[in-house]
Amino acid sequence: MDHPPAGTPPTDDATDRTATGTDPVPTPAARPTTDRDPAPPGALDASPLATAQHQLARAVEILGYDEGLHAMLATPRREMRVAVPLRRDDGRTEVFTGYRVQHNISRGPGKGGLRYAASVDLDEVRALAMWMTWKCAVVDVPYGGAKGGVTIDPHAHSRPELERVTRRYTSEIMPIIGPERDIMAPDIGTDEQTMAWVMDTYSVNRGFTIPAVTTGKPLTVGGSLGRATATSQGVVHTARAALARDGVGLAEVTAAVQGFGKVGSHAARLLHEAGTRVVAVTDAVGGVHRSEGLDVPALLAHATRTGTVAGFPEADPIDNHGLLTLDVDLLVPAAVEGVLDGETAAQVKARWVVEGANGPTTTEGDRVLADRGVVVVPDILANAGGVVVSYFEWVQANQAYWWTAEEIADRLEHQMTASHDAVAALARAEGITLRDAALTIGVRRVAEAHQIRGLYP
């Protein structure tokens, strides 16, 4: 989901009640109205947080919950804002702002990525933390939702500077994180090395090594096989399942992938390996298009060598808008939030949209796509492969017993496919979209945990 530095190869972000069927599909209290958005068109497209809040309100309406429960589900449990001073390599001092939001911890410890981007703000982190809550619940992982961010452009800083920022940020938020409280993972602008620094800083302050405080770490310090590509694997598993509902296979379709970083690069490769004709990709610098299909392995080598897909030979340039509105069967937005707004959604020609990024479709965009009959596999389901394998990593770290790559791949495919099937079954039974169905399942599981645990004091 972020653009890799030049010369760096792209990398990715227990019992299964969903799979075994012991967690029943929720039954909505009443069929919702046909008006999917009671607000004026475009009114809720302003920010990811507005989109997240509207999505929750929609699920609450479907489930028939009262305003008190709605307020509890909407309100972050804990927020921390910290100053993150950095001594630059040239001796200058800069101060950045860091955030950690724990949206909900009723089903287990908080879980969510750490994002480094100059544009990060508290509302963005709140939205991402809320989406993590529903994402963990819809794939039935025993976590709550959390997210973190620091207002730093990682491409403008040296590796030693990023290490100092990471260690200072970790030390500032240490009172609210831990393997049983809040577990971090990579996100935009961070990677497995960042997670190793977080783990080391936390462990040194505790006096012993605690691998389970982060996931997405290098294998040598307690990481898991399969984590680097887990999000992309989940995208492809859910895409395959969504197409299969319409009797179509991955080898029969064309695809365009927006974003060629942690998720998009591996998603493009996996789709290519499945026989899909990947005709266009873009990244933070530019994009390429070839109607006959891109040579994805060669494109990966080009991006690793040059730091961008732009300039790939035997392909035409394309920008993000051109890719999003390209005449393809399958569209995978795997970059940033809000790219499919109402105007762009009206021009989408794809039959299926599988959301590799968090929040790529705005409220208005979602309504437009639904009205046009475009099947959208929502982010909280489609890109949940990362948190599923993060859970596997956490389990392995706590047990100090490591699984094989085959075990992890099989468990991931089983959990993602079962979760998709549960969402699709509810959508079909109630005549609602896959997003509404996924949110209904996720919100219901969190609400049940709230209600069963009760209020204290």
Q: Outline of this structure?
A:
By secondary structure, the chain is of the alpha/beta class. It has helices spanning 17-20, 48-63, 67-74, 122-138, 159-173, 192-206, 230-245, 264-273, 296-306, 320-324, 342-345, 363-371, 379-382, 385-399, 405-430, 434-453, and strands at residues 78-87, 93-104, 110-116, 144-150, 182-186, 254-258, 277-282, 287-289, 316-317, 330-333, 352-354, 375-377. Among the domains are: 76-218, 3-Layer(aba) Sandwich (Rossmann fold), CATH 3.40.50.10860; 230-382, NAD(P)-binding Rossmann-like Domain (Rossmann fold, 3-Layer(aba) Sandwich).
Helix proportion: 40-55%
Biggest sheet layout: 7 strands, mixed
User: CATH first level of the domain at 230-382: which class?
Assistant: Alpha Beta
Structural class: alpha/beta
CATH architecture of the domain at 230-382: 3-Layer(aba) Sandwich
The residue-averaged pLDDT reads 91
| CATH superfamily placement of the domain at 230-382 | NAD(P)-binding Rossmann-like Domain
- Low-confidence blocks of residues: 1-44
Order of helices and strands: HHHEEEHEHEHHEHEEHEHEHEHEHHHH
Overall 3D geometry? globular
Report on the architecture of this protein.
With 457 residues, the chain is an alpha/beta fold. Among the domains are: 76-218, Rossmann fold (3-Layer(aba) Sandwich); 230-382, 3-Layer(aba) Sandwich (Rossmann fold), CATH 3.40.50. It has helices at residues 17-20, 48-63, 67-74, 122-138, 159-173, 192-206, 230-245, 264-273, 296-306, 320-324, 342-345, 363-371, 379-382, 385-399, 405-430, 434-453; strands at residues 78-87, 93-104, 110-116, 144-150, 182-186, 254-258, 277-282, 287-289, 316-317, 330-333, 352-354, 375-377. It has a 7-stranded mixed β-sheet, with helices on both faces. Strand 3, helix 4 (122-138) and strand 4 (144-150) form a beta-alpha-beta unit. Helix 4 (122-138) crosses helix 16. The protein is globular, with a radius of gyration of 21 Å. The termini are far apart. Mean pLDDT is 91; it is low at 1-44.
